[in-house]
């Protein structure tokens, strides 16, 4: 019997598994996720790629327990995720979504999501550096105490889309949770910033279990495995080189469509 309050004792290493998961949004006729099974072993990096509407973000929403799949099971360390205490469960994830929200508070509070007393100022500066924002913050008279938005403070700052995304990445780095999820987390970054972030990923993510969703296939190559989603199903699964071998595959089609811009 699920009791929904199982405690998470292992703080570091986590394995995620989807077993025959299918899901329809409430009121929808079509399945958005169809019989998806995959395992992300402890410390491994999974990339999910696929066209718009393929079901990638929905997969993450199910993992984050925003919806409860009526068919199949999602397991964390072999236990159905429904059984864990919800708050404890969410603490395991550092997530950057495509549509993250910045709050009308200071830069520091936007990163720590806590009041100033408990915040480690040095760590804030470190994560801002890793996210590629320190130079920008140094220009500000009030530094990390600057308000994000001019709504309540005329000395506040309105960040650009890419700068806001860097702040969201800094927030995820500050949380330093054992599982990292980046869902189109670098889509608004210019190519140089994106390259800088990706080249630091190995250090940033380290040996944490992680999931990356990106339309830029070149930035998924470093992952241990790539799952290609199509109409809610996993149609290909493997390493970059293996997936490319099948020239008629969806992955090859997506890769070649982008490669022509690089060549
Ligand atoms: N809240 C919702 N209610 C009903 N349908 C939804 C909802 N959210 C998403 N969908 C539908 O589910 C399908 C999959 O969406 P999802 O966001 O998972 O795709 P995606 O692969 O992440 O796409 P993208 O690359 O555009 O971000 C889409 O057809 C979308 O319209």
TrEMBL record:
Transmembrane segments: none
Gene Ontology cellular component list: plasma membrane
Location of this chain's protein in the cell: Cell membrane
Superkingdom of the organism of origin: Bacteria
Subcellular location, principal: membrane
Segments forming domain ABC transporter: 16-256
Keyword Kinase: no
Keywords: ATP-binding, Cell membrane, Membrane, Nucleotide-binding, Transmembrane, Transmembrane helix, Transport
Pfam families assigned to the protein according to its UniProt record, in alphabetical order: ABC_tran (PF00005)
Protein name per Swiss-Prot or TrEMBL: ABC transporter
Annotated source species: Caldanaerobius fijiensis DSM 17918
